[in-house]
Amino acid sequence: MLLDEKKKKQQETTSTTPTPPQSVQTKPETLDDVLQKLNNLIGMENIKEEVNTLVNFLKIQKLRQDKGLTPIPLTLHSVFCGSPGTGKTTVARLMGQIYKQIGILSKGHLVETDRSGMVAGYIGHTAKQVDELVKSALDGVLFIDEAYTLEPEDASGNDFGQEAIDTLLKRMEDYRDRLVVIVAGYTGEMERFVNSNPGLRSRFSRHFYFEDYEPQELIAMFEQQCQKYGFQLESAAQKILLDKFTELYSNRDDSFGNGRLVRNIFERTVSQQANRLVKIPNLSVEMMRTILPEDIDFE
Known about the structure:
This protein is an alpha/beta fold.
């Protein structure tokens, strides 16, 4: 009798013991996966073509090396030219992953910085800051936004931007097999920056030009945001957006925000929609999903 009760308790204990969670195995990312992410980006057809051509070249160079043939020397340090919001940082991040998948970089991570992260206010401190940045980016990509500010047109003798450039160039040579540097900024400013220093000009010979997004591409980006967060544009609202994007694109200058412009308008629009909806009782899901013409906010 006692033995039966003991067995029963063991069975109850076994049946109530929680099953340990099973670890989910994620499929490792491949080169094709990364290239698919690139090719799925809105616009940037010239960038996609250039990156795919570079990838094909690197593949063949690796095959040549594996077959005992002499590979062609190639610098991967690049200049990304274009206005803000044109996808430069996004592409830089994908480039790091591409180089990792090909076997050029072991990590392929992206470290972002700008002048404020490189230039200190005291003698000797700038070189130390640059060294720390470079070490954090080893085996990956160092992305320097608005790099032209390191060499201002009206630089004074007390500006330490040149020290940052000199230190960076030396570290690029020291770690030439472990570091890719991408400098980015407005097209005209970046051309002036690279041409201001023979060391920069010799190391940054590869240029990528990011064009402003056209009105239809801006609409596609807005709709992408809508899809991501469960909104839908009424056709009249879409026409208002297209007309406004066309006007802004036609009158654009260096302050044209591109992707950032779209994100800002989307955020203001959903806020305006909330102001409208909060006054309506018994809201349906469809009402909360739909963006009407009066919700569009460009101000």
